[in-house]
Amino acid sequence: MPEAPIVAWQLFGIKYMKPMIFTLVGKDKRGLIESLAQTVFDLGGNWLSSNFSHMAGHFAGFVEIRLPQERHDELIQRFSLHPDLSIKLLVGHDDSIITDKTAQIDIMGNDRPGIVQELTAILSSFNINILTFDSRSVSAPNWGGQLFKAKALIAVDETVQLDNLRYALEDLADDLMVDITIK
After folding, report:
1. Which CATH architecture group holds 101-182?
2. Could you tell me the pTM of the whole model?
3. What is the DSSP letter of 70?
4. What is the pLDDT of residues 140-164, one digit of tens each?
């Protein structure tokens, strides 16, 4: 019977892994993510999740890792020396938001200044916690303008009336299409 693979933290004889989040912005070039992942691995860490994008001419993203607590300072030191990226690290918490029910909201309509503020104000008025929010403005050549698209994953409790939420969001503009799906 083959032996179980050795996990990186076992190589270092460390048992307690502490969550960390880091954000990054900088000039893009090949191998950036690989170099960050290698550094995390070299220090006995585990890369849990990440999200990267090109925005306004820069490469930007955020990453959640688990790293032995005694290695946090070393990671901070190594990342502070990265020649191409500005990186900020934060120690995470072991507790997380637990929710029984989530819903996904898909929104599409004409783009305009303030649309994200208006949408999030409505979500806040319903006492809704946004778990993820992804938005973009894309060209709408048939309409001669910009189209706003957003997708949000929200935590909802039993008091939230999703139909009322949909109506409130749709009332922002005649052209706004809103779809809410329970997850």
Report:
1. 2-Layer Sandwich (3.30)
2. 0.76
3. G
4. 877 778 999 999 999 998 888 999 9
